[in-house]
Design brief:
With 335 residues, the chain is mainly beta. The protein contains 2 helices and 18 strands.
Length: 335
């Protein structure tokens, strides 16, 4: 009988010990979950960083039998971000700056690239990867731009001529850190042409000076307001360890004036990092704005004219820019 009591005591003690071990494992699992939650919450606060890229190209020819011209080109690209997260609120800010010049032969330096864009977006968590969101976007260029036609330079742009201000209210969908879809049924687009000579001609969609057949005179305006809908898609992907791709697409439709003719702004960046300071990049930009009238050119580069033989033929055209650069690149801040 004493032996039976001893066996029962050992069994009960073992069971209690096993229960304590099991509880210990459960406590560890709970602690791990708590730790993960604390780690997730610790992402609150600011994240800042950016990319600076500078490319330089020089071609020098001496007694070059096949011909050609000396050339120098310098281009810079910078993309900076500052994002803030606190609880259910997010605030994302980006600043993009691009500028380039090229000199060919004995000619002066001319602009080859010019862009200044600031975007700010505030979001409030609405559940299931959706956010109530408000977006502000500003775009212009740094310096005056010229168009070469028939060996004569014509000024076609300048700082704040044009400039685009866009404000939108809608919903933002963020299923993961690489993709966002912003839908805004209420959007205001404000165009500024702070150059009277360009505004006089009605450049970039503002009301230009005109005299009707009945003698009615309409004065030019430097601004234009459009109300419509806006859609913005941002996608980024690390293709390989040192290769990243990013695409930004913006679509705007004016509710009151040809809503079917949608304005398109589509940027793509493929960055290939060679080492810490050297990289190669390919950037493309596609723009279509139904209100921007561009001269239609013949195959020889001269402008087409209308049936009257004097009036240049102009109209909305698809704009496309492609840049391939290799040079100094520096990434800093948070990833």
């Amino acid at each position: 009988m004493k032996t039976l009591y001893l066996i029962l005591a050992l069994v009960i003690g073992s069971a209690n010990g096993f229960t304590q071990v099991t509880k210990g494992v459960d406590d560890l699992i709970d602690d791990e979950k708590k730790l993960k939650k604390v780690t997730t919450d610790s992402t609150d606060g600011w994240q800042r960083g950016g990319l600076v890229n500078i490319n330089f190209t020089q071609v020098s020819l001496t007694n070059w039998a096949s011909g050609g011209q000396n050339s120098i080109s310098l281009a810079g690209f910078s993309s900076l971000f500052a994002n803030y997260k606190q609880g259910k609120s997010t605030w994302d800010n980006t600043l993009v700056m691009q500028f380039g010049q090229v000199k060919q032969g004995g000619n002066s330096f001319v602009k080859s690239d010019d862009r200044l864009q600031f975007t700010s977006k505030y979001g409030r968590d609405a559940g299931k990867n959706w956010y109530y969101a408000a977006l502000f976007d500003f775009q212009t260029q740094f310096t005056v731009g010229y168009s070469e036609s028939n060996n004569s330079a014509t000024r076609i742009s300048d700082f704040m001529a044009p400039a685009y201000f866009l404000g939108a209210l809608g919903m933002d969908y963020k299923p993961n850190k690489n993709f966002t879809l912003f839908i805004a049924p209420v959007t205001a687009k404000y165009t500024v042409v702070n150059d009277d000579s360009l505004a006089f001609e009605g450049a970039y969609g503002v009301q230009g000076f005109k005299v009707d057949n009945d003698g009615t005179v309409t004065n030019f305006e430097n601004t234009r307001l459009e109300i419509g809908g806006y859609l913005r898609v941002n996608y980024k992907k690390q293709i390989m360890e040192n290769i990243t791709y990013q695409s930004n697409l913006g679509l705007f439709s004016n509710y009151t004036n040809n809503p079917q003719n949608i304005d398109v702004n589509w940027d793509n960046i493929l960055n290939m990092k060679v080492n810490k300071y050297i990289s190669a990049s390919i950037t493309t930009s596609l723009i279509y704005d139904d209100d921007v009238k561009i001269a239609v050119l013949k195959d020889d580069g001269t402008p087409k004219v209308r049936a009257d033989g004097a009036t240049p033929e102009v109209g909305p055209r698809t704009q496309f820019k492609y840049v391939l650069g290799v040079g100094f690149a520096y990434t800093f801040g948070d990833k």
